[in-house]
Amino acid sequence: MSVAGGPVTQIAWVVTDIGASEEFLGAMLGVRTWMRMPEVHFGPENCTYRGEPADFTAHVSLGYQGETQLELIEPVRGDSIYTEFLARGGAGLHHICFEPEDFDAALKDAAAQGIDIVQQGNMGGEMRFAYLDGAAAGVPFIELAEVGPNMRQFFEQIKKDAV
Q: What span, in angstroms and rounded, lies between the C-alpha atoms of 161 and 163?
């Protein structure tokens, strides 16, 4: 069984200037509108980074090109895979996201294949996510996500507003 199973649902970049990135990638990729969420906080009660409780904040912006969600992440405070990525080589393509049918089974498959979970979390029961080390495949990270009904509705509204 493949770990990621399912279509790519998101492509994400880590950036140093979210406004400039919205403008540039919007023009390049035909994104009409972005939904910016400033100062999204991930705390130690719901997120880990490299196996330890995490506490960080990031600006996040979401847009769509067709059915594919595009995400921009600008770290603001604290250590995360986003700050690690910027320190390693600057802004750029950070991850692709899949939504496996069985999130827990996908994590077990990753562990069985020796693929490290670098960061994971739970957004109030509405979305669980895990970033897998994708360096062996030439992609910094692969994100697996389990999206609940309220978060799905939020994403659908962003997509609808983008048309």
A: 6
Q: 111-133: b or e for each residue (b if 16 or more CB lie within 10 Å)?
A: eeeebebbbbbebeeebbbbbbb
Provide CB contacts within 8 A for 139, sequence distance 6+.
Answer: 93, 95, 96
The Cα-based distances of 97 to 19, 77, 100, 154 in angstroms read: 22, 23, 10, 17
Taking the C-alpha atoms of residue 72 and residue 36, their distance in angstroms, rounded to an integer, is 9
The pTM of the whole model exceeds 0.85: yes
Provide the 10 A C-beta neighbour count for residue 72. 27
Residue with tokens 């972005």: 34
Taking only the tens place, the pLDDT of each residue in 26-66 is 999 999 899 999 999 999 999 999 999 999 999 999 999 98
Burial of residue 81, with CB atoms counted within 10 A of its CB: 0-12 exposed, 13-18 middle, 19 or more buried: buried
Give the Cβ contact number of residue 20 at 10 Å: 13
Cβ atoms < 10 Å from Cβ of 70: 20
